[in-house]
Amino acid sequence: MTRFEVVFIAIPTIGNLVPVVEFANLLTKHDPRFSATVLTVHTPQQPFINKYVQSRAASATNIRLLQLPTVDPPAPDQYQSLVGFFSLHVENHKHHVKHALLKLISTESNSSDSVRLVAFFVDMFSTTLVDVAAELAVPCYLFYASPASFLGFSLHLPRVDSAKSDSEFAVPSFKNPLPRLVLPNLVLDANDGYSWLSYHAKMYRETKGIVVNTLEELEPHPLQSLYNDSQLKQVYAIGPVLDLVGSAQCDPNPAQHERIFEWLDQQPRCSVVFLCFGSMGSMKATQVEEIAIGLERAGFRFLWALRKPPNAQLQHPRDYNEVDVLPLPDGFLKRTVGIGLVCGWVPQTKVLAHNAVGGFVSHCGWNSILESLWHGVPVATWPLYGEQQMNAFEMVKELELAVEISLDYREGADLVLANVVEKGVRSLMEGGDEIRKKVKEMSGVCRGALMENGSSYSNLVSLIQDLTS
Ligand SMILES: *[C@@H]1O[C@H](CO)[C@@H](O)[C@H](O)[C@H]1NC(C)=O
Fold first, then answer.
1. Containing domain of residue 293, as a range?
2. Residue 262 CB: number of other CB atoms within 10 A?
3. Minimal-distance CA residue to ligand 1 atom 2
4. Dihedral sign (CA 423, 425, 426, 430)
5. Residues 211 and 232 both lie in one domain
6. Which of 244, 287, 369, 375 has its CB surrounded by the most CB atoms within 10 Å?
């Protein structure tokens, strides 16, 4: 039997790495002729990623996680944005990546079974490695963990005139013009983020195919705009690919989580609003206080993953510990003791799967959106960074699948005031029947897409045909 090997690389963030690993898992499970190697990049500032990689490597049966030799991170004067940092950091591994691929190729020619290295998958910010694949004549693909709408935006990156704050931008992957306020910092800030993103977008066109973690039924318009793009080769919507148990495997605080799930077990069905802002999300004290006041006034049961801002740019937020003073209004914890729980990091997917959870205030990272749709829990939007403002816009305005709290919040923006939080939580939990119904339907559609002959299933089959032909 001919066997097929595929190799993946992703920048070391939870949002990009986790879906890559899950996709490798999906592919090798679907077709046992495939085996996968995920090359991982070590970043000392992000111990959580390293922990995730170790725990996932220990539990993966059909995929191998291979840590590349450690390379010093770029010096602060070499980049201005996070995208700049990650793009350079991955690029600096070029030599090691080439070496790893060569080693796989030579093992394959020495082995008695016939094993073929059929694809090297890069992610949205590691396209500097496309050349390595070309040099070794390995077909190169892109695995894209953000929505098709943002992929389309990246391919048609607008030039933004900083003087015109009210301008709008027509982009083929959106039905409505995009207000300037929802554009990502990458495009608005005058730093290296813009040039990196346009570089990567140019390289997307050099790949043999693009695999997007989305589904036709969720993003028909953006996907059609990509299918119509004659400069792209193949586009495969194969999602939602989700980590339904994984992050629980490297749970930093199992005792706390037992307490959370015991508490959730006692709450009525769909009664709890869950607030969680992602692996990189935290807010300043004044904003935390507005949320607390709004939540208390709204009066719903709540579970709030409140995390402490990091000390330095590349670090993750941390959990508060016993000696920290939480930035909450006086007496907030006492007054809400019966109805709410403030906690640290939580296994988000597991919480969303709990039937006590009736609404999700989310930063709108694409993985979080897919998880909430999978579990049929409506989102209220509170974007923070990355392309999340555009994801929030897509969910609220393009798809009418989410309730709006904010579409344009980001660090340095005006505070979202308590009355807006209160109104948003109310409309999430007791209004928005139409949205709740649509989200429940989409939940079924997501599951159907992955089932035999579903849209994503069929696209995966086409991808496999392409890879093995
Ligand atoms: C999927 O499609 C094939 C070919 O049309 C058909 O033979 C098979 O029964 C279908 N499977 C399901 C579960 O519908």
1. 254-445
2. 9
3. 453
4. positive
5. yes
6. 369
Q: How does pLDDT run across 319-367, given as a tens digit for each residue?
A: 877 777 888 999 999 999 989 999 888 889 999 999 999 999 999 999 9
Residue 301 reports pLDDT greater than 90: yes
Residues 362 and 379 in one domain: yes
Q: Kindly report whether the global pTM for this prediction surpasses the value 0.90.
A: yes
Strand partners, 67: 40
Q: Is 452 in the pocket of ligand 1 (CB under 6 A)?
A: yes
Residues 278 and 418 in one domain: yes
pLDDT at 303 over 80: yes
The verdict on 322 and 219 lying in the same domain is: no
My answer on whether 18 and 108 are in the same domain is yes
Q: How far apart are CA 135 and CA 415, in angstroms?
A: 50
Q: How confident is the model at residue 249 (pLDDT cuts 50, 70, 90)?
A: low
Mean pLDDT for all residues in the chain: 92
**27 CA → ligand 1 middle, Å:** 19
Q: Do residues 360 and 303 lie in contact, with contact meaning Cβ atoms separated by under 8 Å?
A: no
User: Is 113 touching ligand 1 by the criterion CB < 6 Å?
Assistant: no
Find the mean pLDDT for residues 165-171. 86
Query: Residues 184, 295: one domain?
Result: no
Q: What is the CATH number of the domain that holds 215?
A: 3.40.50.2000
Domain count along the chain: 2
- Joined tokens for residue 76: 């602060």
CA distances from 393 to 365, 373, 421, 442 (A): 12, 16, 18, 18
Distance 453 CA to ligand 1 centre (A): 6
